[in-house]
Design brief:
The chain is mainly alpha-helical. It contains six helices and no strands. The chain is 65% helix and 0% strand.
Length: 117
């Protein structure tokens, strides 16, 4: 008989978001900066799909705010992350029911158009 341990704190969520922000800060040469994955966006998309009741839009906005502070931006990352989070948490069936290629293209174009998400 397998036992499961349930934790009520969001320790794993916070750690993965911190790691994704740290990966965003890793310097890359100029020729490779266009190939940098959007770690924070991918992490938030994962948590929005896996645990939408634990990661709210406030977490997406706060993470975008931290991105603005660390990257020296004026604003906009928080709004873009919130918009991406709203799409992924409001329509999880639409995102999961289409093919993996279509989902990947959707996220790719949103990242390319929005700059962050």
């Amino acid at each position: 008989m397998a036992t499961t341990i349930r934790t009520r704190n969001g320790f794993v969520i916070v750690i993965t978001l911190i790691i994704s922000i740290m990966l965003m800060l890793v310097p890359l040469p100029d020729y490779a900066r266009f190939f940098r994955p959007e770690w924070v966006v991918m992490t938030l998309i994962y948590w929005a799909m896996a645990l939408p009741h634990r990661v709210s839009i406030g977490v997406a906005w706060f993470t975008g705010f931290i991105m603005d502070i660390t990257m020296g931006g004026i604003g906009g990352d928080g709004f873009q992350l919130c918009a991406r989070y709203l799409f992924d948490s409001t329509f999880p069936f639409a995102v999961t029911s289409i093919s993996t290629l279509a989902t990947s293209l959707n996220h790719f174009f949103c990242c390319a158009i929005g700059g962050v998400c």
